[in-house]
Amino acid sequence: MTSAVITGTGSFIPSIKKENSQFSENLFLNADGSSFDNTNDIIIEKFKSITGIEQRRYAKNEYSSSDLGYFAAKKAIEDANINPEELDYIIVAHNFGDIKKDTIQSDMLPSLASRVKHLLKIENPNCVAYDILFGCPGWVQGVIQAQAFIKAGIAKKCLVIGSETLSRVIDAHDRDSMIYSDGAGACILEEKENTTSGILSHATQSFTKEEAYFLFFGKSFNKNLNTSEKEIHYIKMHGRKIYEFALTNVPIAMKTALDKSGIEIDEVKKIFIHQANEKMDEAIIKRFYRLYKKPVPEKIMPMSIRTLGNSSVATVPTLLDLVLKGNIEHQEVKKGDVIMLASVGSGMNINAIVYRY
């Protein structure tokens, strides 16, 4: 039986730290441009209590998202100990393409996957490179696609990357800007025969009738900008709607994936969930276990959001790599462990994977 097995992981965590205190001089405004009644200190403290974020990472000015993806990809390739010329697919998940610091244009020509392949100096024309736009669940969906190629017999080795530089699309006058960060994570999936390891099942959903624009591109909250500045658009979200949507729908999608696998919930050792909001993630996991009438096990959910923030497509692969490399205290994955990967994001899209390590 053919399985799609993760044989290597890698991540790139930018070196620039942005502490919560560094937002103390921002002019935070409501969506209508009015001022908040509270001081920035109170706004920041409330933000921390809800999201859990204390600091986040920003990329150096000279690096774009494709650069970050390349750095993570190199580490994953080295970890898997493969020749990059043997790759059949390079799939890069992102949302905004390459955006140079202090510019307003997104650059996706050529695709980020083509740029990563170029940086890796891969000559093989049969290594197909393409991008996937699927919101924050993009990397997880890329893994699902790579498995489909492997199961169909048209690929043996795939590189899946999630990379983002959200720090370049945030409105400094929007308090939600404190959530976002930069980073990249990657993995190698390989075809393996007669192994118990690999992807056991998955589930994906897209909700668009009412939910498509819960995350969107919008203008700055500052209505006093000059004419050209007013035309710049930034990442925006309806936070409360996303929170309620995620709590209602993500646990159900996770249950669908787990039930398809035939694995009992007690066998799940770790859940790697998109690092969007600490309280939201904790509530999702609690509701997921409630569906099975079970309490949440201790240390079931590794977290990186406190120090890395929300780097969208990069959060799950980065978190997975950190745990596999022993870089998160009191968290590990052992051979034979069943883990879950899950994410939710713009679209609105949800997905989950059950995987035996």
Automatic annotation (TrEMBL):
One matching Pfam family: ACP_syn_III
Keyword field contains Acyltransferase: yes
The UniProt record lists the keyword Acyltransferase: yes
Domain Beta-ketoacyl-[acyl-carrier-protein] synthase III C-terminal: 258-357
UniProt record, GO biological process: fatty acid biosynthetic process; secondary metabolite biosynthetic process
Gene3D superfamilies assigned to the protein according to its UniProt record, in alphabetical order: 3.40.47.10
Domain of life, source organism: Bacteria
GO molecular function: 3-oxoacyl-[acyl-carrier-protein] synthase activity
Beta-ketoacyl-[acyl-carrier-protein] synthase III N-terminal domain ranges (all copies): 130-204
Protein keywords: Acyltransferase, Transferase
Protein name in UniProt: 3-oxoacyl-ACP synthase
Organism this protein belongs to: Tenacibaculum piscium
